[in-house]
Amino acid sequence: MNQFLIIVRGSDHSTASPEKKQQRLERFNEWVGKVLNGRFVSGAPLEDTDARFLKSRTEILTDGPFIEAKEMISGYIVIQAKDIQEATELTKECPLLDDFKLELRKMIPMQQ
C-alpha cells in the first residue's frame, strides 16, 4: 500500500458555528470508519492562531496564520491506497469537500 497526503485548503474557523463543526467531525469520523475502512493513517486540523513561515534558519518571513494567503491550509489527512486512482475515489467521499478544497499527493517513503 502507498500513502497519500490530503491537504485540506480553506478555512471557516471564524464563521462556522460549534454545531456545524460538531456535525462535520461526526461525518468525518463516519467516513474514516466506513469508507476508509482501516486505511486512515493520521490527520489533524491545524491551529489557526499562531504560525511561522521560515525562509532560512535566521529569517522568519511572516508570523501567521497566513490569512493573506489565497487558500489557507487548515489540516491534513494521511491515507493508504494502492494507487492514485483508488486514493482519488476514497478522497471524493470525504465530507470535508462540502466546505473545503482537498489536494491529494502521493508520499515518497523515506529510507532510514
Distance between the termini: 19 Å
CATH architecture: 2-Layer Sandwich
Structural class: alpha+beta
Q: How many beta-strand elements?
A: 6
Number of domains: 1
CATH C-level class: Alpha Beta
The description of the largest β-sheet is: 4 strands, antiparallel
Radius of gyration: 16 Å
> Treating each run of at least 4 consecutive H or I residues as one helix, how many helices?
2
Provide the CATH superfamily: Dimeric alpha+beta barrel
Uncertain stretches: none
pLDDT averaged over residues? 88
Share of residues in strands = 25-35%
Overall helicity: 25-40%
What does this structure look like?
It is a single chain. By secondary structure, the chain is α+β, with helices and mostly antiparallel strands. It has a single domain (2-106), classed as Dimeric alpha+beta barrel (Alpha-Beta Plaits, 2-Layer Sandwich). The chain has 2 helices and 6 strands, in the order E-H-E-E-E-E-H-E. A 4-stranded antiparallel beta sheet has the order 2-5-1-6. It has a two-stranded antiparallel sheet with strand order 3-4. The radius of gyration is 16 Å and the shape is flat. The two termini are 19 Å apart. The mean pLDDT is 88.
